[in-house]
Amino acid sequence: MFELLGIAPQALFGQLLLGLINGSFYAMLSLGLAVIFGLLNIINFTHGAQYMMGAFVAWMLLTYFGLSYWWALVLVPVIVGASGIVIERLMISRLYHLDHLYGLLLTFGLALIIQGLFRNQYGVSGMPYSIPPELQGGTNLGFMFLPNYRAWVVVASVVVCFGTWFLIEKTRLGAYLRAATENPTMVGAFGINVPRLITLTYGFGVGLAALAGVLAAPIYSVNPNMGADLIIIVFAVVVIGGMGSIMGAILTGFGLGLVEGLARVFYPEGSAVVIFVIMAIVLLIKPAGLFGRTA
Amino acid sequence: MTDQTMSGAPVNEKTRQPLRVPVLHMGIFAALLIFFLAAPFFLYPVFLMKVLCFALFACAFNLLLGYGGLLSFGHAAFFGGASYISAHAAKMWGFTPELAVLLGTGAAAVLGLVIGSLAIRRQGIYFAMVTLAFAQMVFFFSLQAPFTGGEDGIQAVPRNLLFGLFDIRHDRAFYFFVLAICFGGVLLIYRIIHSPFGQVLKAIRENEQRSISLGYQVNRYKLAVFVISATLAGTAGATKALVFQLASLTDVHWTMSGEVVLMALLGGIHTIFGPIAGAALIVAMQNYFAGFGAWVTVLQGAIFVIAVLLFREGIVGVIGKWLKKPL
């Protein structure tokens, strides 16, 4: 067995895998934030709460309706995304003519409401959600033991992220979307229903958060606060990456997950703050973010 | 026509005149002072002290949002950070109350300088996210640092002799110490808003590009107001730690940053007295609904949503509009 700087390879690869898992969630969530921000120009503070709702709805489907994890993967993004569409139509759409900060405040209020309601109903201790039988167990890779479910999470999130990238950068619908980001009035003049595009975009972004929630449910316990702290880290990820590019959001998400994993091996005390420290450095050197366009 | 009429803001010849406090504002300050001088004799002093601390906190925060146009989502870092420093100084080093508050305030100023100089590199929504992220960093630091007591916080903080001479351990005596600090702080903020510095801030808020073209070093003004705001938020936090004789993670948590935003928003962000009213209402609400657990969070969220959707001017802003006078 080889050793690297006095660190056992099992520990190193274990932490890197954990970092990659966290990175998967950072990437999926910051991707959703970037997609929403591109078109709506608001930062969706409710994103963490919607991620938590994704996990909870999956748990509810299993507990109350006996629907398995695989059903949840399909149904939850649709259900939570639809709730997002209702929110956008009823509330967020009233704020587009105002300073974008009001959108931030509104979605912050909504996050408090959703988290408070779930805390009242289910407490803070969390609900267990077991790994689906098809993905239980693990594979021995020789240098480390790889739990199947974790491998699945990484693969699934990579597929989702690049699928989204493909949808936005390479398809006709994505072209409309990018055009509407640049100049909504002009796109509207070409006969495209921009308000509907905006609504669907918000629904899609929220659906992504919910999907991340379903993937997270078997790893972390399903509890009302699971999104609150995560969303702040994702904000830092978004600041580091800049919200200008989809690929930037994906790469920054995975990259920072790995960096956090490395920090947990080499300097555990700093692992909670390493992303914020990186954010400070990026602000000093390249304020617009690594992939950001200068404002 | 000239640019002035196009932007709708005529040149104000009076800005260079000495500060003249409108009679209405003077009256409101006098009424507030009289009320708070008399209040401890018929209301619970600890509740009143909490209102006062949060009123100063909200006013300090609103100096940045309402007058600087910068939405910080991380003011808990200064409030909570100062409360830890002040509590530690009073408990471990036996600092007198005024010195403990002063030290906490100074610590908040330094923290404000560090965070502020980084955060002002981004604008708008990014600024809010950056401040939130740095505040979370302070939170994690407070969770792990050896002197903060982790989940327990710093408990049983003593109220030492004021100036080393006067015994103000009793709630009602301590109340007047808190009143002096908080009222003084609010008056200072009022003075800053109406100074030439405050006028430049408003200009930057209304049109940053234009202020730059007029030759103002916009970033210096932003940093200055950020540091002042952080400093006074620190004063409020340092005082609060002595009031409750406790510094805990609640004060540095992001929910505290959200609460102070809510106070300013509810009262009215473009007003002077709004944050005071907002602070009083939110603190009262928390007090009366304390037994309902997470419903307080739901209610706060609902107030946020309603305030943003229906009355963005805030309560005092609406009253001011009704009286046709800025409050």
From TrEMBL, chain A:
CDD domains: TM_PBP1_LivH_like (cd06582)
UniProt topology in membrane: Multi-pass membrane protein
GO biological process: amino acid transport
Stored InterPro entries: ABC_transp_permease, BCAA_transport_permease
GO CC terms in record: plasma membrane
Record keywords: Amino-acid transport, Cell membrane, Membrane, Transmembrane, Transmembrane helix, Transport
Compartment(s) of residence: Cell membrane
TM region positions: 12-35, 68-87, 99-118, 149-168, 200-220, 232-259, 266-285
Family: Belongs to the binding-protein-dependent transport system permease family. LivHM subfamily.
Full protein name: Branched-chain amino acid ABC transporter permease
Organism: Pelagibacterium lentulum
Automatic annotation (TrEMBL), chain B:
Subcellular compartments: Cell membrane
Keywords, sorted A to Z: Cell membrane, Membrane, Transmembrane, Transmembrane helix
Record carries keyword Cell membrane: yes
Pfam annotation, one family: BPD_transp_2
Keyword DNA repair belongs to the record: no
GO molecular function: branched-chain amino acid transmembrane transporter activity
Listed transmembrane segments: 23-44, 51-79, 99-118, 125-143, 173-193, 223-248, 260-285, 292-311
GO cellular component: plasma membrane
Chief localization: membrane
Membrane topology: Multi-pass membrane protein
CDD domains: TM_PBP1_LivM_like
InterPro entries (alphabetical): ABC_transp_permease, LivM-like
PANTHER family attached to this UniProt entry: ABC TRANSPORTER ATP-BINDING PROTEIN (PTHR30482:SF17), HIGH-AFFINITY BRANCHED-CHAIN AMINO ACID TRANSPORT SYSTEM PERMEASE (PTHR30482)
The protein's name: Branched-chain amino acid ABC transporter permease
Organism: Pelagibacterium lentulum
Lineage, top ranks: Bacteria, Pseudomonadati, Pseudomonadota, Alphaproteobacteria, Hyphomicrobiales
